[in-house]
Amino acid sequence: METIETLNVRLGEIFGIDTISRMPIFRIVWANDQTEKRLVSEVAGIQLLCPEVREMKKYGYLKDLYVLERLVLVPDSDQPELAGVKLSYEPLWAYRDPSGNPLPPTWVATEFLINTVHAALGKTNMAKYVEPNPEEDKEKRIQAIQEELFGNETETADAVRYKEGIVVPSNYKKNEVN
């Protein structure tokens, strides 16, 4: 299993970083360690006279598991609640089984999740599909794809395939009787 540090490095290298803040777009974190500053007007059921900014657990509902987060712009309407923060990591996936038991993050699962989100947004990670030189051997690639899809579709091949043709050996000599 890869370490969380290794996974986070790969996330930054493959899925990018924010050009202004230099923060990775995606990251994997331990839910128990995450906090955020929030503007609160009530503490333990008691109304405060003046709202104040407090450091609070970000994932109080998620315990003892890893979370895949995505860096997003905080809408202007939500910035006062998050103490004016303009960028925030928001949860994308909690690594747990259907019973709620924690699962270790893996690269295959993480990459699949991110590619699925990108596909849903109409974006795709096309970098891995870019050809080095699109014009080089174009005819060969097209021919190979056609053969993979359709096979050898000549009249002779079809006749032999359907047992309606005859194969004449290359060493056959016309008008020669043995």
Summarize the structure.
The chain is 26% helix and 24% strand.
The helix/strand order is: HEEEEEHHH
Overall radius of gyration: 30 Å
Structural class: alpha+beta
**Helix proportion:** 25-40%
Account of the protein in words:
The structure is a single chain. This protein has 2 domains: 4-129, no CATH class; 133-168, no CATH class. Helix content is 26%, strand content 24%. It is built from 4 helices and 5 strands. It has helices at 4-15, 107-120, 138-150, 155-161; strands spanning 26-30, 35-43, 46-57, 66-73, 87-94. The protein has a 3-stranded antiparallel β-sheet. A two-stranded antiparallel ribbon has the order 2-3. A hairpin with a 2-residue loop joins strand 2 and strand 3 (46-57). The protein starts with a helix and ends in a 17-residue tail after the last helix. Residues 126-130 have low confidence and may be disordered.
Task: Produce the secondary structure layout.
Elements: H1 4-15, E1 26-30, E2 35-43, E3 46-57, E4 66-73, E5 87-94, H2 107-120, H3 138-150, H4 155-161
Antiparallel strand pairs: 1-4, 2-3, 4-5
State the main characteristics.
elongated; 4 helices; two-stranded antiparallel sheet; alpha+beta; 178 residues; 2 domains; 26% helix
